[in-house]
Specification:
Alpha-Beta Plaits; alpha/beta; Rossmann fold; 3 domains; binds 1,4-dihydronicotinamide adenine dinucleotide; seven-stranded parallel β-sheet; elongated
Length: 402
């Protein structure tokens, strides 16, 4: 019997997946909970689903000894103390790529809007001005799209843009398989110099931070466009505002900012507000109902697999392990332990010493942690489990029976 607690209005598609765990009971709440309410609500809960507003601290984890796994039904995992969770044997999962398509679609749509001068025409028509003109308005067909970062989003955008007749070029620091007619270029400068639209799809790293500073923006083609739907610190927004005001750039579509309001009640402050050729959106690149549903399924599946088989693939704080389906008549012993020499042989010795036949065994390690799955024939005696729990290096022992 397992209990799952889903907070923050997680998409109902998660339930359909979690219900595959035999005998699971799912409790839902629409809001986030503060630490005290959360501690009370976690009594008897093995699986917890949260989004970005629930903070999981070591204090909360200490008060939740039954908790096995946390699913972050979102992209980021900053709201969870990942090390503390690992130390307490709680696996954490998220859904990092479930909104890829949503971002790619918005980026393509933004390219069309920018090339037609929609941001300033929209601003004008709201003032009652009728900017009916074809001057400076273009189709995206046969224009050069320069993608910086050809990962999940960049490569999907590449396919969508090719479908609209664009000539796609990309720059990535890793070798990437080009989709369709897309072509890699050798340097960022080369991409900036030749693209009608430059679009950023890289993570925020020391190498990418401020990659589009005043000097890089100056290298872009005159009257070209910049799109940043990736991370707020990739672009120097002061320099971008200047390039838009001077007319060097004909427009920009920006969804992410160096500082963003923490809530709806805070004012959005940015030099880009004064730029009528900027298409500004409030960090909603990946925010669609479809993405929420995909996140529900993705994070739900990871929780379901961990609950049902101990599989930790794509966990953000556990060594990844595919333990395989349970086989009738076997018991699986899952041991999270410190990554030190001798643990596996000691565990194997203890299990064999109890007269059990090991039918399958898998181990993986990452950093300071090791995670081993041992399938034995028959049941596991309680005194062996006690011995394993008290063995040097053991963090957590759990068993699953088919
Ligand atoms: P990904 O990890 O699949 O791809 C990133 C690519 O950038 C990789 O191919 C990597 O090799 C490349 N890269 C890394 N450093 C580079 C550099 N210095 N120069 C050129 N290429 C470099 O990431 P994914 O999922 O495609 O996401 C891309 C960005 O979009 C991320 O910053 C992510 O946080 C952001 N994002 C924004 C959303 C929004 O709501 N606006 C929603 C989802 C993602």
């Amino acid at each position: 019997m397992m209990k799952a607690l889903l907070l923050e209005n997680i998409h109902p598609d998660a339930d359909a997946v979690l219900e595959r765990v035999p005998g699971i009971e799912i409790e839902r709440r629409t809001s986030a909970l503060d630490a005290d309410d959360l501690k009370a609500a976690l009594d008897g809960v093995q699986l917890l689903g949260i989004r970005s507003r629930t903070r999981i601290t070591d204090e909360v984890l200490a008060a939740a000894p039954d908790l096995l796994a946390i699913g972050c039904f979102c992209i980021g995992t900053n709201q969870v103390d990942l090390d503390a969770a690992a130390r307490r044997g709680v696996a954490v999962f998220n859904a990092p790529f479930a909104n890829t398509r949503s971002v790619a679609e918005l980026t393509l749509a933004s390219a069309v809007m920018l090339m037609r001068g929609i941001p300033e025409k929209l601003a004008a028509i709201r003032r009652g001005q009728w900017m009916k003109s074809a001057t400076g308005a273009h189709e995206v067909r046969a224009k050069k799209l320069g993608i910086v970062g050809y990962g999940n989003i960049g490569s999907q955008l590449s396919v969508l843009a090719s479908g609209h007749g664009m000539h796609v070029y990309f720059y990535d620091t890793e070798p990437k398989l080009a989709h369709g007619n897309a072509r890699p270029v050798g340097s960022l400068d080369e991409l900036l110099a030749q693209s009608d639209i430059v679009t950023l799809h890289v993570p925020s790293t020391p190498q990418t931070r401020m990659m589009m500073d005043a000097a890089a923006i100056a290298k872009m083609k005159p009257r070209s466009f910049l799109i940043n739907h990736a991370r707020g610190d990739l672009v120097d927004v002061e320099a971008l505002a200047e390039a838009l005001q001077s007319g060097h750039l004909a427009g920009a579509a920006i969804d992410v900012y160096p500082t963003e309001p923490a809530s709806k009640n805070e004012e959005f402050v940015s030099p880009l507000r004064a730029c009528e050729t900027a298409l500004l959106t409030p960090h909603i690149g990946g925010s669609t109902e479809e993405a929420q549903a995909a996140i529900g399924t993705d994070a739900g599946l990871k929780l379901m697999r961990y609950a049902g088989s101990g599989g930790s693939a794509k966990s953000v704080n556990f060594p990844e392990l595919e333990a395989g389906d349970m086989i009738a008549g076997r018991t699986r012993i899952l041991a999270l332990h410190g990554n030190a020499p001798g643990y596996l042989s000691e565990l194997t010795k203890l299990v064999s010493g109890a007269g059990l036949n090991i039918a399958a065994q898998y181990l993986n390690t990452a950093g300071e942690l090791g995670y081993v799955s041992t399938d034995v024939e028959g049941d596991v005696p309680a005194d062996l489990l006690d011995t394993l729990r008290n063995a040097p290096g053991t963090i957590r022992i759990r068993t699953i029976s088919a």
